[in-house]
From TrEMBL:
Protein name as catalogued: Lysosomal Pro-X carboxypeptidase
Enzyme class, first EC level, given as a word: hydrolase
Record Pfam families: Peptidase_S28
Keyword annotations: Carboxypeptidase, Disulfide bond, Glycoprotein, Hydrolase, Lysosome, Protease, Signal, Zymogen
Alphabetical list of InterPro entries matching this protein: AB_hydrolase_fold, Peptidase_S28, Ser_carbopepase_S28_SKS
Highest taxon of source: Eukaryota
Organism: Alosa alosa
Sequence similarity: Belongs to the peptidase S28 family.
Keyword Glycoprotein: yes
GO molecular function, one term: serine-type carboxypeptidase activity
Cellular localisation: Lysosome
GO terms under cellular component: lysosome
EC number(s) per entry: 3.4.16.2
Amino acid sequence: MKAEFKAIMPVLVAVALLLVLSCSHGFALKSHLFRRRVPAPSGVMINYKTYYIDQKIDHFGFLENGTFKQRYLVADLHWQTDGGPILFYTGNEGDITWFCNNTGFMWDVAEELGAMLVFAEHRYYGESMPFGAESYSDAKHLNYLSSEQALADFAVLIKYLKASWTGCQSSAVVAVGGSYGGMLAAWFRMKYPHVVAGALAASAPIWQFPDMVPCGVFYKIVSDDFAKSGVNCHANIRRSWKAIDKASSTDEGLLWLSREFSLCAPLKKGDGLKSWLQETWVNLAMVDYPYEANFLQPLPAWPIKVVCEHLRFSPEVPEQELLQGIAQAAKVYYNYTGDATCLNISQSATGNLGMMGWFYQACTEMVMPMCSDGVQDMFEPQKWDFQAFSDECYAMFGVRPRPDWAEVVYGGKDITSHSNIIFSNGGLDPWSGGGVTQNLSDSLVAVWIPDGAHHLDLRNNNEYDPSSVLAARRQEVALIKQWVKQWAVHTHG
């Protein structure tokens, strides 16, 4: 791997983590994801049917006339067939069955709303491949992978459902999504207000683009999470980088690090221990949930607090002892169950996700600058270098990113002309730095969840949920009901 690419890889990985919280280890578990009945985390049985619709490969041109089969899932157990609403999940960059099985909020409120649930798969992910096995073969085949094409797919699918499903012609459709899916939900309402009555955009960093928010905000929030979770915790992580450099400068030090971290293979110079740890701390910030969870890894409740118990050293602690604490902290993430015999830093901390599709999107329209300075955050200084980023994108895909395209297409921070969108964000979630956290109008509503990590509100109800997320869900349901009533008045005059 080129040195320049190593420098920007943390940015690509951090952006790819938009996918992780909902998709988890979905690709590794793909063979298990086609079950049609699975127990949800709350014990509620999820029951859906799988369908396919023929979609145009290119909605915006006329030379490519091919079609592909887009997968979507439907659950209508609680649907009131005389025009009950449709909660429409705008699929993220991953297998749609995993989002279906892990968006417990929709299942929890379906009966109260009398709603049909529809989960639409995003093109180029899961089974929805425009060119089959050739979809990722080159830039020509990847050319139709964009948020704009995906939103058009969703609009066509809803038009088809209303034309072919008896009883939903007048149904209000509410878009729901988390992370990148939340961005799509918000943009869906903005671009197709005649199709969707409103949108719940959870943890949606629609402003994490050039010149909209400071590039350092993401890593600062990660660091703040660690600072709040234990005495000297973030300060000791900041000190650890130089200690790792010093230890890894000799063969003896590399061997010692290999033993302390219980690595599967002996550590060599340039193996990326620091980038692996950086990704681990970021993951922990996003999954800092108030109860045991099993998204990226099996983790305890409030995992950062558990991690920080290993890092309560004073500033005078010897470097060797500091690194022993860092190793134990990393094992909270990778070996909480005690089942791992060794740790493999050659694998991403997010597992084998197959993130190349999202890398392509990050290299075209989803340009999300990130940087760190080692002062406002606990990471090593790393500038945002657009040119280096662009060069590596060209080397990978033969394409150059358009840094301002999201602002041109979706309005950037000038979105007050739109309506009926909930932007929910958690105070623990690093992506909240690129999210809408203040009301923009009476109907562009920001819901703030101080104790929430990445889209906690879209998870199932849990007995350990903080009161802030329970209040957020109540507010979200009340607004959805309001939109449904507005749609009925609009539809029936």
